[in-house]
Amino acid sequence: MSKKLLLQNIHIEGIRNYDIYRKNGGYTSVEKALKMTPDAIVEEVKQSGLRGRGGAGFPTGMKWSFIAKPAGVPRHLVCNADESEPGTFKDRYLMEHIPHLLIEGLIISSFALGSNHSYIYIRGEYAWIATILERAIAEAKQNGWLGKNILKSGFDCEIYVHRGAGAYICGEETALLESLEGKRGNPRIKPPFPAIKGLWERPTVVNNVETLAAVVPIINMGASAYAQIGVGKSTGTKLLSACGNINKPGIYEIDMTISVEEFIYSDAYCGGIAHGKKLKACIPGGSSVPILPTHLLLKTAKNETRYMNYESLSDGGFATGSMLGSGGFIVFDEDQCVVKHTYTLARFYRHESCGQCSPCREGTGWMEKILLNIEHGKGRMSDIDLLWDIQSKIEGNTICPLGDAAAWPVAAAIRHFREEFEWHIKNPVECLKRNYGLLKELVTT
Ligand SMILES: Cc1cc2nc3c(=O)[nH]c(=O)nc-3n(C[C@H](O)[C@H](O)[C@H](O)COP(=O)(O)O)c2cc1C
Ligand code: SF4
User: Fold this and answer.
1) Which of 364, 398, 404 for a ligand 2 pocket mutation test, highest count of atoms within 8 Å of Cβ?
2) Which of 2, 46, 152, 249 has its CA 20 to 30 A from that of 417?
3) Ligand nearest to the CA of 356
């Protein structure tokens, strides 16, 4: 069983409330951190090996060290609680059940970055969690952890909760900043990166909820102890949200040393495939990352065991690997249709494209239409190569990574399940029978 750092106290009744959180060791990391220098905290986070838990896995300490410090210009820390990647629901769990862990992490991180005004940007659909966070912030303030001159350290800090209006693109950090400024959530061209020009053109760091929560155990236990958990460049623990055709969907905290096979089949985690079915495939890190068929999910192309960590899941690049991404683990049993799921994802990305770049705006729409045709029995063999061509022209040619996120699932589905696309094209009547609902949708849209 993996060691727990973030969820170790989650079972304690009332842990959402300040008094109980504090009685169980809460806020001790703030006491410790405020006796350190900001640079020492940044160094500690660097040494811990913590990587951003929002998807890209960028080293957090390094990101913090990039923040510009022009004299007299305020700096900001923004917590990305948008959590809109399909299949990902770990941040929700953390904020809902142990909100003070995030507030504690935010205070330390704000101190390290010199942010006196920090923000939590939360997706609009998490309205009740925004209320939980607002209450936790008020409790922290009443008890002297926020406001002016915290613990007589000379450091002032306020945290504000800002609700989004329900757009996936607002999870992308620069779109999030635009939205926080009150504008339409369109991604910005980078550079300049937010560390130089972010919120209101001020130096800004954007970090995921889980990343900021992980700063608490790092300060409490020390960077070297944290770095010893896990393996290689996958240090510490990682929250995974597991869903799909498994016996035990839910949130699991793992230490990134367990194999994918253990994660799927062990009773401590997913508990195996539901209804005794066989495993067909899995999307290991949220809907944007490539799907892997069973043989590449359990073993790498070199016939080595595949582990639940950043390096092992990406082993072989996208030809034979995928990504740990945001930790949204979606499992498919033998009865699932990859073409249908790929269509569902293409539809999602078309809907969420902000429309600024032609390859993303036009390409996502074309891919959706072609996939819908194939899925309901109106495809042609040439459509498979056409799809491949379109996705390859989106990837890497857009302002923000939503374009890549739309292209990768299509590429991986064709790469690993081409015969399933061919089957659809050769068996149009079967497809029609299976997809009466989809057909109706085509007629009415
Ligand atoms: C389309 C899109 C959606 C994203 N959604 C989220 C999200 O919901 N939550 C998140 O933390 N990061 C999301 N990201 C990644 C952020 O842009 C950013 O890299 C992340 O918040 C940085 O935090 P980290 O370094 O702690 O991982 C998204 C990126 C893209 C391109
Ligand atoms: S890639 Fe798509 S979502 Fe991102 S900026 Fe371009 S059009 Fe908008």
Assistant:
1) 398
2) 249
3) 2
Whether 75 maps to a domain, the answer reads yes
Q: Which residues of the chain have pLDDT under 70?
A: 1, 436-445
Three-state DSSP class for residue 29: helix
Q: Which residues have any ligand 2 atom within 6 Å of their CB?
A: 169, 187, 353-357, 360-361, 398-400, 402-403
Question: Tell me, what CATH number does 326's domain have?
Answer: 3.10.20.600
Same domain, 62 and 202: yes
Q: Are residues 177 and 53 in the same domain?
A: yes
The three-class DSSP label of residue 301 is coil
Q: Are residues 174 and 85 in the same domain?
A: yes
Are both 60 and 203 inside the same structural domain? yes
Contact, 194 vs 206, CB < 8 A? yes
Domain range holding 404? Answer: 338-444
Ligand 1 centre and the CA of 254: distance in Å?
21
Spatial separation of the C-alpha atoms in residues 47 and 385, rounded to whole Å: 46
DSSP class of residue 306 equals P
pTM of the full predicted structure? 0.96
Spacing, Cα 129 to ligand 2 middle (Å): 28
Q: Is the CB of 194 under 6 A from ligand 1?
A: no
pLDDT in tens, 372-426: 999 988 999 999 999 999 999 999 999 999 999 999 999 999 999 999 999 999 9
Q: Which residue has its alpha carbon closest to ligand 1 atom 23?
A: 207
Return d(Cα 103, Cα 212) in angstroms, integer. Answer: 9
232 Cα: distance to centroid of ligand 1 (angstroms): 23
- Is residue 348 located within the same domain as residue 240? no
Domains: count for the chain: 3
DSSP state letter for 188: P
